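Re: the pair you flagged

First of the two:
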Amino acid sequence: REAYAAAMERDLLARAGDCRDDTVDTVYFGGGTPTCLPPEVLCGLLATVLSRYNVAENAEITTECNPGTVTPGDLVKLREGGFNRLSMGLQSAQAGELRALGRLHSFADFAETFRAARAAGFANLSADVMFGIPHQTAESFADTLEKLCDLRPDHVSAYALTVEEGTPFGRRGAAALNLPDEEAVRGMYLGMVEFLGKRGLAQYEISNFARAGYESRHNLKYWMLEEYAGFGPGAYSDFGGVRYGYTRDLDGYIAGRLDLAESEHISPQEREMEYIMLRLRTARGIDIREFENRFRQRFTPLAAILESCTAHGLARQTETGWCLTPRGFLVSNRIIGDLQEELNREKAQRLARAAQGDYRVVE
């Protein structure tokens, strides 16, 4: 642990010059359970960031945290060290569901850690829950949400379980896991959107809900196509027009090697696709004027697809453009795929017109 922290500090110091002209307004310790490290180590790494980077005075500074990995005293140290937001992993309030997920904590453990974080001075607390997990029912998921909301979190992230090949769940197979069926999962999602909205947690992205003013500023950077710099093995960045990621080589990282797993310059065409995909993940949706000004691309052909979605309750028009409804979020991959296909078709037509000497961009 100490060797990893030392390597991270070297990394932060070595790359500080790349960010000398940038203001850092969010810092996020995540990608696992950072609180497995002692609070003194986490605070030391944050101190390096604060001293060597241009961090805004009102920056959002988050660490992920699982119950059982911190004491009340640890939480006080983290708050005094500069962290002002915690993202805590609950997943479920049901003992059997937690066991099925391999989680070591109980809901009582979570509640105790949550209250200790409030007492330590954390005014911005987020919790993660999961749906579509083994043995879960609509009733048990509703009970999880009820118990969580009684603690008054400021933010909730809710993710459906995805069973990946090569994982312990993947090797067992869906039939052996006792997973709820697709229709049940759909009902859990739509019921959650309605329930959290009534409890003051408005949906602002497919999987994220917040009280007004408590949306995750860090995650919004991803969805708004803003720049971010990642540190550590396996970390990804989108910085200076380049998207790059480092290998998942912990031993190499500790030894001072920082090898790229991939690196690519993002073309304007790719950014168009990403804009559509990421913005339609948000309740804010696509801003037509911003899209046309940024990409010099007509939105009209895409609007026709979204108008068709509106007729089926999957999308709606906003003051500035279009967004998906909660029902639309459930089939967002298909809608986004249709939009990207239409965008490609439109580009092919423009190229054909240009080849014939017609250089009009906007008709």
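Second of the two:
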Amino acid sequence: VESFEAEGDTRNLARLAGLCLPRTGDWLNSLPNRRNGTYLNSTDWSAAAKYRLNVPLYPGGTNRKNCPSCHQPLDTDHPVHCKVGGEASSRHNGLVSIIHNIAVAGGLAPIREARHLLPDGRRPGDTTIPYGDGPLTLALDLTVTSAVRPDLIQRCSTEPQYAATVGRERKLRSIGNQAREAGFSFKALSVTSLGYWDPVAEREIVKLCRAKSSRLGLSDSKVIASEFRILSCALMKGLASMILNRDSYCDDTDNQMLGLNDVMM
């Protein structure tokens, strides 16, 4: 860390600080299992591991090409920020499906994107649970925020939780007041691109896991650990998709992405 400070490498400080937070390594501690969603193929695993290890993803130097989706300069962090191409939406929807399925398994009768909550027709919750917050309907809305976003990176280098906090507060500013006026409870489930869950999000997911374990007669701790590993693997699959679908060099044998074995040698 001292060497990064000396070099003024704020991006690496933010990256390392973000990777020291809880849950960011859950996918590395998961047994590969296609059936429960903790399987990453070798290409996905390699891409996610290289991003975690700060290995250059797109060789090329001065000959580096632009992003094939948005045509902006392509660097290591660009895939995490790029919203063109559908990969970010796919990652979001995959995480939402997992959380929704936990609620289903818990017998909570969740509704995907309920339309009746706000009078203007907006759908503020990815998953809505009737009576999920005492007598109130609970709307859960997921958001993923990059831990190395340019406008957040300086603060994230000293406060690694800040990216998740920003994601939660942005959702609350957008929906919070309307939710109170409409008489339902709104909770933002915010996670960073490195896998850290905001405390509010983690608390709500743990509640869903406990409902599932109670209904199925399973151990609370095992269900909670298992579901967070599944979420972590889904997040890394999404990250890998963002990286691999922007590889401009896949047809150039001289400039292909390095394999993980090459990286580790």
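The two ends are 24 Å apart (CA to CA).

-B.
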